[in-house]
Write a structure and sequence with these properties.
The chain has 443 residues and is an alpha/beta fold. The protein is built from eleven helices and 20 strands. It folds into two domains: 1-338, ANL, N-terminal domain (Rossmann fold), CATH 3.40.50; 341-439, 2-Layer Sandwich (GMP Synthetase, Chain A, domain 3), CATH 3.30.300.30. The strands form five sheets. An eight-stranded mixed β-sheet has the order 4-3-5-6-7-8-9-13. A four-stranded antiparallel β-sheet has the order 10-11-12-14. Strands 19-18-17-20 form a four-stranded mixed β-sheet. The radius of gyration is 23 Å and the shape is globular. The chain starts with 22 loop residues before the first helix and ends with a strand.
């Protein structure tokens, strides 16, 4: 059991001590754990044993952290192909929890935890909350989904181990969320950033100003979001909006977190070893250069995962951290290598369009990208909600706003997109991850 510390607001939390390990000590710990996890995967997971033998590498060949490149990559398809238990390294009597992600192509991805794995998970979530300035005495409304999704229970047990009061409200039922937030004196909320914006909008309809509530922090994750969306949330709600990062295949939430200085995601690399590689070649890129994040679990006993291709695009931050942590940091993940779409030869990420939209005054962070094909040519339409005041403006004013948005998108993407302004609350809201792209090209 993780000890609950009677820490005070703004004070150092002892659970964060590993965040400040001297680099030689950290690298030694990582190497020892890497060798142990490689041996466990080699001996107990058929897929890894086979691939290592085919590559002519054994765990004994891992003599330095640089040797990690000799180990095989893991892809999401590997988890689907070995469904349900093919990547487990522990026998079922030692596994105390199973989670699964939604199966977008049929079978879900199943992940497993021993009791020791759950201890690690709670500890990195304590470090996450502490990094965001939360402490014993906070009242945390956990609006991540409970159940097979890792977000709800991952945040829940971490917040309890922190010593906070947890409200396990899960997702959905927006009016109840707002009532609880107001009546229970909630000081921090966990949910997706797009759902929190939905809460802000609904609060305005109910005459509730979030800036007048005790709420002071939002712990947001589970989907990419931009700096513009952070600024919007902080202005509209009067809170500090923190980004957290995780994925079920590795452990769930708790892989990385921003700190109170909001200068990058600190990776808890004593448990998750990070690499940045070229998405096309798989070769490491220089520090500071953008590439695909690859993660290796260093302490996951039930289901070790080696060199997992996340498809999340980011880069190591090379400047010193304002919080003094020695762990490596990466930039916020705003796009993925696999959510990119191509329009008339141009690679486009939804986050690029969001940046272009939020740079134009009068737009709201509610938009939808519709892809169609006319006479064999791909077309892109961006539907954008505008503020109620602007929507009631003159036709010429709306046309001017439409032109400014179109120009901003063209300047950002290098291609012209059709822009349609729509009334507030026209675009469907999401209680989880936002669905930004509607691809109708094959209909």
């Amino acid at each position: 059991m993780i000890e609950q510390w009677n820490d005070t607001p703004g004070g150092f939390h002892p659970a964060s001590a590993p965040d400040y390990l001297p680099l030689p000590q950290l690298r030694d710990l990582q190497l020892r754990r890497l060798r142990a996890i490689a041996a466990r995967a080699y001996e107990h997971v058929e897929l890894y044993g086979k691939r290592m033998r085919e590559s002519g590498v054994t765990p004994d060949d891992i003599q330095s952290l640089d040797d990690i490149v000799r180990l095989p990559f893991t892809q999401k398809t590997d988890l689907r192909d070995t469904y349900p238990f093919g990547l487990f390294a522990s026998p079922m009597p030692e596994i105390v929890r199973l989670h699964a992600s939604s199966g977008t192509t049929g079978k879900p991805i199943v992940v497993a935890y021993t009791r020791e794995d759950l201890q690690v998970w709670s500890s990195v979530m304590v470090r996450t909350f502490a990094a965001c300035g939360l402490h014993r005495g906070d009242i945390i409304q956990n609006a991540y989904g409970y159940g097979l999704f890792t977000g709800g229970l991952g945040a829940h047990y971490g917040a309890e181990a922190l010593g906070a009061t947890v409200i396990p409200i899960s997702g959905g039922n927006t009016d109840r969320q707002i009532m609880v937030m107001k009546d229970f004196g909630v000081t921090a909320i966990c949910c997706t950033p797009s759902y929190f914006i939905h809460l802000i909008d609904r609060g305005e309809e109910l005459g509730i100003d979030f800036r007048e509530l005790p709420l002071r922090a939002g712990i947001f994750g589970a989907e990419p979001w931009t700096e513009g969306m952070r600024q919007y949330i902080e202005k509209q709600a009067g809170i500090k909006a923190y980004d957290i990062y995780g994925l079920s295949e590795i452990i769930g939430p708790g892989v990385a977190s921003e700190t109170e200085t909001q200068d990058g995601l600190v990776i808890f690399e004593d448990h998750f070893y990070p690499e940045i590689v070229d998405p096309d070649t798989g070769k490491p890129v220089p520090d500071g250069q953008e590439g695909e994040l690859v993660l290796t679990t260093l302490s996951k006993w039930a289901m070790p995962v080696i060199r997992y291709r996340t498809h999340d695009i980011t880069a190591f931050i090379t400047t010193p951290s304002g919080c003094g942590r020695t762990l490596r940091r990466v930039h916020r993940v705003t796009h993925r290598s696999d959510d990119m779409f191509i329009i008339r030869g141009v690679n486009v990420f939804p986050s690029q369009i969001e940046v272009a939209l939020l740079s134009v005054e009068g737009t709201l962070p509610h938009y939808q990208i519709v892809l169609t094909r006319e006479k064999g040519l791909d077309q892109i339409e961006v539907r954008v909600e505008v503020t109620p005041e602007i929507f009631k403006d003159t036709i010429s004013a709306l046309e001017g706003l439409q032109a400014r948005i179109s120009h901003s998108i063209e300047r950002t993407l290098g291609l012209r997109a059709k822009v349609r302004l729509v009334e507030p609350n026209t675009i469907q809201r999401s209680e989880g991850k936002a669905r930004r792209v509607l691809d109708q090209r094959n209909l």
